[in-house]
Amino acid sequence: MQIHQRLTRLRLMAPSIGQCAVGAALAWLVAKEVLGHSRPFFAPIAVVVCIGVGLGQRFRRAVELVVGVSLGIGVGDLLVSWIGSGAWQIALVVALAMAAAVLLDSGSLIVLQAASSAVLVATLLPPSGTGGVDRMLDALVGGLMGLAAVALLPTSPSALVTRYAMGMFGALADALRRIAEAVERSDSELATEALAEARTSQANVEEFKQALATSREIATISPLHRHRRARLEGYEKAAVPLDHALRNVRVLARRAIVALDGSSTLPPWLPTALRELADATLLLREELATGRTPERAGAAILSVASRQGLERWGFSADVMIAQLRSIIVDLLQATGTEREEAVAALPPLDVPSADPFPSAPAENDVHPGDEKDLPVLTP
């Protein structure tokens, strides 16, 4: 990873790091000064686990952490006070704490916290008086301080999701332009490069989805940002269609490689249509980022849709056209258009009895591990 990529990642994670630092300090102070606990290390640990440097489901993480710690400490205190400490005692305590956590909830964090807390009790912190209850309270304080830090020291939910959307929109636009250039130059190597680059885009999609989930969470629990929930609606409508569009672009790139290797005749208007869709994608990104209704992007996509030709160009070309139509429908849906309306915006196809639009690409289009990209093509 290059230095500018590392710095970009640090900038994106800076709000979470700040929340962890402030929340951990406050949790320690509350547990030590207010509750009177001498070594409340569970409190700052709970903050770090609750907030983390990842995205999404912080409220659930806080609940799982508190329950997991309480369960692990409870089982550990109960058993260790009876059977003492040792190798077989640790094995028994961990097994019972994890089994109880699995029965209680399917979350991985609650199971891990139950196990680690049980280990601490069985090794470093043998039960003594109210120690178990104090540790449970420390975990609870840490969880609450973590949520308070997210609520009162939040990053802007709209700014967060916009930052992570940049990569997804950029990957889609770049892939469309690269395929357009490959078709224009009749260069299958360029199409191969476009496919290789597009295959890295799924990471952008997953990061965007996590950022969107975190933004919804912030807008829900933070009184400072509840008014921004409406700004997230456009991204919520666009998330799934954009994921589908990127998958369809990858399949389009694979078919372009086949078509160009076989010297198939491709429509002369195809590169222009791909570039115009790339421009419309960036326009959609701009409109969503500024909170505007994506009317201009929708009009640009409809313009490409209305100029689809009805000519037959051969199998590979017809499959590429069908794939292009699917991408158009995906992008229209990303603007908030209903699927039926998006499909209706495309010129009807006079499909002969031998249907040139298969429900999935030909076998030689499929790269190992890419089966999840296979679309259902728009008729």
CATH level 1 name of the largest domain: Mainly Alpha
Architecture per CATH nomenclature, i.e. the level-2 architecture of the largest domain: Up-down Bundle
Helix count equals 14
The name of the CATH topology of the largest domain is Methane Monooxygenase Hydroxylase, Chain G, domain 1
Number of domains: 2
- The SSE string, one letter per element, is HHHHHHHHHHHHHH
By helix and strand content, what is the structural category?
Answer: mainly alpha
Shape: elongated
Number of DSSP strands? 0
Amino-to-carboxy terminus distance: 42 Å
- Strand fraction equals under 5%
Average pLDDT confidence is: 78
- The whole-angstrom Rg is 27 Å
Give the biggest sheet: none
- Which blocks of ≥5 consecutive residues have pLDDT under 50? 352-379
- Residue share in helix: over 70%
In short:
This protein is mainly α. It has helices spanning 3-34, 42-51, 58-83, 87-104, 108-123, 131-152, 157-185, 188-198, 202-221, 233-261, 270-289, 295-306, 315-334, 339-344. It folds into two domains: 3-152, no CATH class; 157-373, Up-down Bundle (Methane Monooxygenase Hydroxylase, Chain G, domain 1), CATH 1.20.58.
What labels describe this entry?
2 domains; transmembrane; Methane Monooxygenase Hydroxylase, Chain G, domain 1; membrane; mainly alpha
Please render the helix and strand layout as text.
Elements: H1 3-34, H2 42-51, H3 58-83, H4 87-104, H5 108-123, H6 131-152, H7 157-185, H8 188-198, H9 202-221, H10 233-261, H11 270-289, H12 295-306, H13 315-334, H14 339-344
Helix pairs in contact: 1-2, 1-6, 2-3, 2-6, 3-4, 3-5, 3-6, 4-5, 7-8, 7-9, 7-10, 7-11, 8-10, 9-10, 10-13, 11-12, 11-13, 12-13
Transmembrane segments: 12-31, 37-55, 62-80, 86-104, 139-161
Main location: membrane
Biased composition (Basic and acidic residues): 364-379
